[in-house]
Amino acid sequence: MSEQRDLVLDIKNLTKHFPMGGMRDTRKVHAVEDVTFALPRTEIVTLVGESGSGKSTTARLISRLIEPTSGEVIYNGKDVLKTQPGGASLEYRGDIQMVFQDPFGSLNPAHTIGYHIERPLLIHKKVSGRKALKDRVHELLDTVGLGPADETAAKFPYELSGGQRQRVGFARALSVEPKVILADEPVSMLDVSIRVGVLNLMKRLAEDSGLSFLYITHDIASARYISDHTNVMYAGRMVEGAPSDTLVHEPAHPYTRLLLSAVPNPHAGLRTQETQARGEIPSLIDPPPGCPFAARCPHVMDVCRQIMPGAVTIAPHHWVRCHLYGDGGESPLPNAANSVG
Amino acid sequence: MVISMSTDVKRGITAVPDNFIPLIEIDNLQVEYLAGRGSVRAVDGVSFSIGKGEVVGLAGESGSGKSTIAQAIMRILQPPAIITGGQVLIGGRDVLQMTDRELRKFRWDEVSMVFQSAMNSLNPVATIGDQIIDAVMAHRKINEHQAREQAKEMLQIVGIESDRIDSYPHQLSGGMRQRAVIAIALALQPPLMIMDEPTTALDVVVQREILAKITELREKFGFSILFITHDMSLLVEISNRIAIMYGGEIVEMAPSRELFENPLHPYTQGLMASFPALTGPRKQLEGIPGSPPDLISPPSGCRFHPRCPHRFGPCDSVHPPLIEVRPNHFVACHLHTTSEGSAQ
User: Fold this and answer.
1) Which of A46, A15, A47, A10 is nearest to A29 (CA)?
2) Quick one: pLDDT at residue A4?
3) pLDDT tens, A225-248?
4) Using CA atoms, how far apart are residues B58 and B256, in angstroms rounded to an integer?
5) Higher-pLDDT residue of A337, B300
6) Which of A106, A315, B121, B256 could form an SS bridge with B115, CB 3.0 to 4.6 Å?
């Protein structure tokens, strides 16, 4: 991953340990552990994983809603954790915007849609004058497909459907002219029929507006649909990263294979094979050394319980952290598992 | 189509069983919610039946009335929801006419229910064993020791070690809690289980395990399932037949594979084109424009017409009836009312 690409975000060894809370309790929850990945400009990169895998925490660390324990967040070539040690600057907060999962909880029911979009415009001093403010609000509402804008701006959140509210979330994020949007499960609470509309909006924004997206989801099929590159997280760690299509068709890490085999897929007909691994994500409280997936892995070896494997590149842009993939990059796994679906 | 139907029969699960014996029949069910601005017809004239040993899937967006149907069958709707018409027939009796005494026997003995969120449907201050024992002792004349043995057996059946019987819900993971809820629902071995989004709150890997377990148990005990979810891909895998709900009505019903391969209603087609495929070419998807209908003042004619890409003449004025256009394939759409073989 050392080649020259135009990276808007370069995350290196990002780690977050939460204290357990008790006075004498020195244990720590290892929510995010040694996460490294890059977000190239104008691309959509996905973090996929189950609940508790640390994907949302990663987004919050990048947006600096919470401060990391260690690691680097390199934005446009500068480590913002070093250059802004006291907290993110207003400029950084404007450049990196978040869209949240719950469109019902992220809007204030007492204020109009227009108000929600005006606030960031005023705080970040993006417009001056009443007329310019109104025009900009309308422009933003049109951009996210919420026309006629003057009607929508006067509405209250309860008058909008879930999909429309999520579009307000995007309009609000866009208002401050960000460079990166961190979208944390933006469609998982929406009805199936309107999910695609929101996904398409993200695609369009990445293509037309030069925005870069970090898309966080547990739905690997939607990751493949909108993103260029997908990274898989498990128990706070990044275990595999690959171009989204490659990841689905040639998964390398046993966890990725498990995840893929569990996705309902009517195209594949009725599934006959049993899911290989069982069990659930292990406790993140002071986890033992070694690979976090060792306890569930069907291919577990002694070394897995002692040492966390390093990243091995097995194909262009495709890397994996698994002891099965040694220095030679040869896969001792049967190839049959590649044909998921 | 005939060809794909026959392959389904060979596969055994996705077709209507040859020996179809109705277990429960829902006939013209109507449920209204009394709201400030008027009443909402949450379920408007829904009819379908579930055969013995059959899995019927009920799919639709939030607000389409699918959970309301489940609650109406169990008679657990709370005001302001009221059942305003129809019948729910099981073994020749109408559930909607049952007295409280009859209902107490009907629930759990004949129909049990698994709710969406396992985390909230277990009593947090009682052990899972006690919760199973409670259900068993309320319905069977057995002593506590026997009930406890039975509870252990049920837990083992759903894949929980029987020594976890004295665990409280918070000591179990989400997947195990959902298994425990299924164990409670299974405890009296009712012929019908209603599962309302039983895996929605779970991760995909755990969801897969629970579904495998449900399928295994159904094959072992032969009960029927009414499976409610918004996840079409899941339904196609697990159910024999699927009913698609929109705005309180069934707009299409067919054997699963037939529905998946050959959806006729534009809404069903839109739903099918709404979830990205995991394999195959990466196609641009469109979803369905617009929003679900406001049921206080539902659209005239076909309720889907404001969002429908194929609407024409009668759609905004005439309500299309649900008719059988192919064997076992019902659809309520004017595009298909004029075609051959539609007369009933």
Assistant:
1) A15
2) 61
3) 999 999 999 999 999 999 999 999
4) 11
5) B300
6) B121
B249/B332 Cα distance (integer angstroms): 9
Burial string for B95-115 (b: 16+ CB within 10 Å, else e) reads bbebeeeeeeebbbbbbbbbb
Task: Please give the model's pTM, rounded to 2 decimal places.
Answer: 0.82
Low-confidence spans in chain A with pLDDT less than 50: 1-2, 270-274, 328-341
CB A247 within 8 A of CB B278: no
Beta partners for residue B38, in sequence order:
B35
Residues in chain A within 8 Å Cβ distance of B13: 270
pLDDT given for residue B208 in this prediction:
84
Paired tokens of B321: 């009836």
B323-326/A312-315 β-pairing:
unpaired
Interface pTM, i.e. ipTM? 0.75
For B73-79, which contacts have Cβ atoms below 8 Å and span 24 or more sequence positions? B73/B24, B73/B26, B73/B111, B73/B194, B73/B226, B74/B107, B74/B111, B74/B113, B74/B194, B75/B103, B75/B107, B76/B113, B77/B31, B79/B34
A333 to chain B, any CB pair closer than 8 A? The answer is no
Which two structure tokens, joined as six digits, stand for B220?
């072992």
Exposure string of B7-42, with b = 16+ CB inside 10 Å and e = fewer, is ebeeeebbbbeeeeeebbebbebbbbbeeeeeebbb
The verdict on A315 touching B (C-beta cutoff 8 Å) is no
Cis peptide bond N-terminal to B80, omega within 30: yes
CB B295, CB B247: distance < 8 Å = yes
Contact residues, chain A, for B282 at CB < 8 Å: 224-225, 245
- Predicted confidence at residue A174, as pLDDT, reads 92
pLDDT tens digits for B58-95? 998 878 888 899 999 999 888 888 999 999 999 889 99
**Is residue B15's pLDDT more than 80?**
no
- Copy the structure tokens of residue A228: 């260029």
Q: Going by DSSP bridges, is the β-strand pair B81-90/B93-94 parallel, antiparallel, or unpaired?
A: antiparallel
pLDDT given for residue B12 in this prediction: 35
The label of the residue with tokens 């739905």 reads A219
What spatial distance separates the first Cα and last Cα of chain A, rounded to whole Å?
Answer: 30
Does residue B179 contact residue B206 with C-beta atoms inside 8 Å?
Answer: no
Band (B120; pLDDT cuts 50, 70, 90)? confident
What is d(CA A147, CA B117) in angstroms, rounded to the nearest whole number? 36
Peptide bond into A148 cis (omega under 30): yes
Give residue for tokens 């401060």: A67
Q: Which H, E and C letters describe B80-123, residue by residue?
A: CEEEEEEEEEECCEEHHHCCHHHHHHHHHHCEEEECCCHHHHCC
C-alpha closest to that of B51 among B87, B13, B94, B9:
B13
- Residue B119 pLDDT: 64
| Backbone torsion region of residue B325, taken as left when φ is above 0, otherwise alpha when ψ lies between -120 and 50, otherwise beta | alpha
- What residues of B are in contact with residue A258 (Cβ under 8 Å)? 205
* C-alpha pair distances (Å), B262 with each of A82, B4, B137, B312: 58, 10, 47, 21
Q: Give the number of other CB atoms < 10 A from CB of residue B175.
A: 23
Q: Are strands B22-35 and B38-51 parallel, antiparallel or unpaired?
A: antiparallel
Contact across the interface for A261 and B209, Cβ inside 8 Å: no
Q: Which residues of A147-163 are buried (b: 16+ CB within 10 A; e: fewer)?
A: eebeebbeeebeebbbb
The answer to whether residue B185 scores a pLDDT higher than 80 is: yes
Hey, is the C-beta of A189 within 8 angstroms of any chain B C-beta?
no
Alpha helices (H) along chain A: 55-63, 80-83, 90-95, 113-123, 130-143, 149-154, 162-174, 192-208, 220-226, 244-249, 254-262
CA distance B61 to chain A (A): 6
Residue of B nearest to A340 (CA): B279
